[in-house]
Amino acid sequence: MFLRRETVWPFLAAVLLQVCLAAAQPTAPDPRSGLINPQGIAFNSANRKVYVVDQTHGAVYVIDTASPAIRSVPVGPAPVSIAVDSVSGRAYVANAGDGTVSVLDGTSDQVMATVAVGAHPYSIAANPRTGMVYVSHTFSDRTTVLDAATNGVTQLATGSADLIAIDAAANTAYLLGYEGGTLTVLEGAGPQFRKQHAGQHAWGLAVNEATHTLYVARMGTGDVIALRGTSSSILRAGHTPCAVAIDPRTNAIYVANYADGTVTVLDTGTRRAVATIPVGVHPQAVAVDAQRGLVYVANTSSGTVTVIDAARNKRIATLPAGKAPYALAVDPGSSKLYVANEAGDRPFTIVDTSLPQDANPPATVRR
User: Is the pLDDT of residue 245 over 90?
Assistant: First the structure.
């Protein structure tokens, strides 16, 4: 069964591992299907714009961080995930409702192409160095590769995949299957296929392109597996880890633990947890602003974002973030944080992270 998320919160009403499993899927997705994805929001450094899916209206909000401009751009039905190309400035939107990818021009924000990729696209990721875009599909063992130069598509028999991560520097794509725990590694222009076992109930990917290491949060075993080439190591986390992020300056790893409302900070040198930081209820996304030395955590059931001082590993603020925040986008160095919301009148919230700090933040647990 594929890993999917439902519209009813909280996810873990009966079984903790149901955080990301849907009891059933409709035979034909529609704009009200409630399918959500951690790639539902993205920041593009090429044009300093933020893109957010609006499933209800079959659209994408485009937020120009350099101006007050916010516009809604119609795409296909039930857009579920977004990939951005930091070289061309384009954005690619996977539309679950009609099996297409909408290609948005980074300057005009207009849809410049609509490409048929196959039924039920779910995750999407772009390699800005090669111009290749990768799309996974629900109920399928195929992965679509879209050539941005021609909009031509190739279907690869990779086995079922849910999330996708890209190491652009190594020209490597990682395809993670949640239920079976298989990680398919696509290497080079060919590409060459390689499969590894990442562990069942793995959800949450982050790539350190400096070390070419992939980190995968594993809910079932309460840990993070670090994969580099064919080697692997295990780093202990908290209860039901479901999201992971890397600080590119320090190489520290931040893991959101959904079930116990904490973030585990991992030292990649010692491969040990150095701190456990209380956050909100059901944290589901984590992001790092290395320029400001801050870590942000989306607390889905609290409707808040926790702000962590990375230098001290301490919570310094808890800020309102709309209904059911589930994904984050960071404009590095800016005090504005962009949050995707699963519920509410508008599918995003802009959070001012310069607001006053917590007067009495809870103590951090050192390990």
Answer: yes
